[in-house]
Design goal:
By secondary structure, the chain is of the alpha/beta class. The chain contains 12 helices and 12 strands. It has one domain (about 30-330): Aldolase class I (TIM Barrel). Bound molecules: ligand PBG.
Length: about 325
């Protein structure tokens, strides 16, 4: 055996705060973070979301203020999600590509008032369908892939027209990145980026989000297993990510975050592409709940969780904690 000790003492590099900081491999900064914002109709409105303490749905005017302050504080981007009025939900999700729809107006007005903000807009039909699925349904209740993609293309174009910087298809239909990219190119949106939710698992950690956008009740006891991925699989994720890159995705997303960091690491090792990781609503609500109980130190576990997500290979992280983390960093 090689003689190591005492010449080699691993603890030397951990001996003071200054040294620890000096040799630190992963550093989190504000521009790594993306804040999701839930948008509602109305003026001067702020609505609590019971299953996500600390996160509110905001009317557009309130969202503008929020984005202005986040941008001033150095956030990387914001991701917008709508909760549309119930009466506007249909089987065909037509409201999804209404140029004057809630999200389209939100993008336009935020971009107009805060031009240096970076806006990510969600492309998927679940906030717009009466059944809460991300795609259109056949008479027998099957998700129709190609028919859905046609609507997604319209939705993506309406977001690009409104001024979204990054279009983020989160629906997991096959072939949608290619079709969206082609449509963007054809319509001269050559700079509009695509952040594809490539490895999106059919996860039980999305529950609070579905409350937030008002799709939980509509979805009922149904699930999204026929399009979102089986949590037991890795190979599937690698193929999905490769396909989306080949189809023209600029950035790929892996989701959820903490229970899926092995996937992040595998993709990072194999492919040279920016990887975004979504610390999803269920992860947020778990940390909130345990912190409210006083069983763990909220600030410390959030900073640890985010550092670990970066260490696994994330370029940026979508997290409901982004705003709070920016404050803590100050
Ligand atoms: C739906 C969508 C979901 C999330 C982002 N976009 C939920 C779902 O697939 O049912 C989840 C985000 C979260 O849980 O924070 N297109």
């Amino acid at each position: 055996m090689k003689k190591t000790f005492p010449n080699i003492r691993m603890r030397r590099l951990r001996s003071t705060n200054g040294i620890r900081k000096l040799v630190r491999e992963t550093n989190l900064c504000g521009s790594d973070l993306i804040q999701p914002i839930f948008i509602i109709e109305g003026k001067n409105k702020r609505q609590r979301i019971t299953s996500m303490p600390g996160i509110d749905r905001l009317s557009i005017d309130m969202a503008i203020k929020e984005v202005r302050s986040l941008t001033k504080n150095g956030i990387g981007a914001v991701a917008l999600f709508p909760q549309i009025e119930k009466k506007k939900k249909t089987i065909q999700a037509t409201e999804a590509h209404n140029d004057d729809g809630l999200i389209q107006r939100a993008i336009r007005e935020i971009k107009n008032k805060v031009p240096d903000s970076v806006i990510i807009s969600d492309v998927a039909l679940d906030p717009y369908t009466t059944h809460g699925q991300d795609g259109l349904l056949s008479k027998k209740g099957k998700i129709l892939n190609d028919e859905t993609v046609e609507i997604l293309v319209k939705q993506a174009l309406s977001h690009a027209k409104s001024g979204a910087d990054i279009i983020a298809p989160s629906d997991m239909m096959d072939g949608r990145v290619l079709k969206i990219r082609n449509a963007l190119e054809k319509n001269k949106f050559t700079d509009t980026m695509i952040l594809s939710y490539s490895a999106k698992y059919s996860s039980n950690f999305y529950g609070p989000f579905r409350d937030a956008v008002g799709s939980a009740k509509n979805l009922g006891s149904k699930n999204k297993d026929s399009y979102q991925m089986d949590y037991a699989n890795i190979g599937d994720a690698i193929r999905e990510v490769q396909l989306d890159i080949d189809e023209g995705a600029d950035i790929v997303m892996i989701k959820p975050g903490m229970p899926y960091l092995d996937i992040v690491q595998r993709i990072k090792e194999r492919l040279n592409v920016p990887i975004f990781v979504y610390q999803v609503s269920g992860e947020y609500s778990m940390i909130k709940a345990v912190s409210q109980k006083g069983w763990l130190n909220e600030k410390k576990i959030v900073m640890e969780a985010l550092a670990c997500i970066k260490r696994a290979g994330a370029t940026a992280i979508i997290t409901y904690y982004a705003k709070e983390v920016l404050k803590w960093m100050k």
